[in-house]
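Troubleshooting entry. The earlier prediction with flavin-adenine dinucleotide gave an output that would not parse, so I re-checked the input for stray whitespace and re-submitted. Clean input:
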Amino acid sequence: MYDVIITGAGPAGTTAGYLLARKGLSVLLLDKKNFPRKKACAGGITPKAMALFPFDISCLVRRTCREVKIIRPGNTSFMIKTKDPLCYVTKRMNLDAYSLEKAVQAGCRFKKTDRIIRLDQDDHGVSLTLSYDGKTDIVRAGHLIGADGANSKVRRLIGAQSSRIIKLPALEADVPVKNAGHYPMTFDFSRDIRGYYWIFPRKSHVNIGIFSARPNGTMNRALLKTYAQDRLKTDILTDVKGYPIATSCGKVHLGTGRVLLAGDAAGLAEPLLGEGIYSALKSGILSARAIEHAVGRKASAPENALDRYRQALGGVALDLRFYRCCASILYRFPKWSLAVGSCNILHDCFSRGYSRGKTLHEIFMLF
Ligand SMILES: Cc1cc2nc3c(=O)[nH]c(=O)nc-3n(C[C@H](O)[C@H](O)[C@H](O)COP(=O)(O)OP(=O)(O)OC[C@H]3O[C@@H](n4cnc5c(N)ncnc54)[C@H](O)[C@@H]3O)c2cc1C
C-alpha cells in the first residue's frame, strides 16, 4: 500500500511526485510510456511557470526570448520587447525525462503500465487495476492523483463529466532552417483559423505549430506545410506531432473522494494561447500539499484533501475564466482586438506583467 499513486509523468505528475516523496511519503508514479518519450508540445515556459519548478531546470533552456513578434490579420506586425525574459524555450522530451529523474531521485517508484483497467475507492483508499507486460496487477494507495493528460483515463473512470472538458487541437513540427536563432518568437494571427500559428526559435531549427481555439478546428500536416512554405520558404517538416490541449467550460472538476485530478486531466490549460505547463505545475504542487496535509493529520481530526485542494486552486479557476473571456473576444474579433493590443501602453503593461510572472487576473488588477 502506497501513500499516493500518481498516473502520468508529465509536469503535473512529476512535480506532485517529487514534492510528496521529498516529504517522506511513499509514491508510485505510473505512465504508459517509458522515458525519454516524445511529447507534442512547443516547450515554451513562461516566467510564472518557471518560478514554480521545484528544481532548477536552467540546463534545459535552449533559448530565452525577450521579444515576441505578433502578426495581425492583414499581415501587419508589431514587436513586444522587454528587459526581462518573456518565455524560455525547452524541449519537452528532455524536460519530462529530467523531471521524472528528479522525482525518482526524491524517492518515487516509477512503473510503466500498459493500461489502467479499473479504479475502486472506499473510505480508506483507492485501488487501481493495471495491466503491464501481459499481466494484471492491483495497486493501492491512500490517495490518487490523476495527472494523465488531456485524454485522462482516471477522469473517465471516476465518471467526471467530460462535457465540462473542452479539447482544443494543436499540431507542431520542427523545421530545419539556417540561422534559426535569428527568428523572433512569433504568434501569428493573420490567418482565418480561429486560432494562431507560432514560430519558436531553437538552436538548429525552428518549431512551428497551429493552435485552434475551436474544439473541432481543422488541423493537418498540409496546413503546417503551407505555413512553413510561406513564412520560412521550406516545406521540410520533421517530427510532426499533434495532441489536444484540455481546458474547461464553466466549473472545473477536480476529482471525487480520494482521487484528485491535476493539469490537463482536470482541464486546466488556458484557452487563449494554450499554455498548460503553468497550471499543470500549479495543480501538481497544490494537490501534493493537500494530500500531505491530509496524511499528516491525526486520525481524530481527519481532513479531506480534495476540499483543501479545491480551495487552494480557486485562483487558477478564476484565471481560467479571464482567459476564456479574452479568448472569445480575440478569436471573434482578431483584427480589432490586436489593433487595441498593438497600443504601446497596453502591451507594455501585459508584457511587464508576464515577464514578472503575473497571472492574467493579476495583470488585469493593475489597470
Ligand atoms: C502541440 C502542443 C504544443 C504545446 N505547447 C505548449 C507550450 O509551449 N507551453 C505550454 O505551457 N503548454 C503547451 N502545450 C500544452 C501542454 O503540453 C499541456 O498543457 C501540458 O503538457 C499538461 O501537462 P500534464 O502534466 O497535465 O499532462 P501531460 O504533459 O500530457 O502528461 C500526461 C502523462 O500521462 C501519461 N498518460 C496518458 N494516459 C495514461 C494512462 N492511461 N496511464 C498512464 N499514463 C498515462 C502520458 O504518457 C503523459 O506522460 C502544448 C500542447 C500541444 C499539444
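This one parsed fine. The first helix runs from residue 11 to 22.
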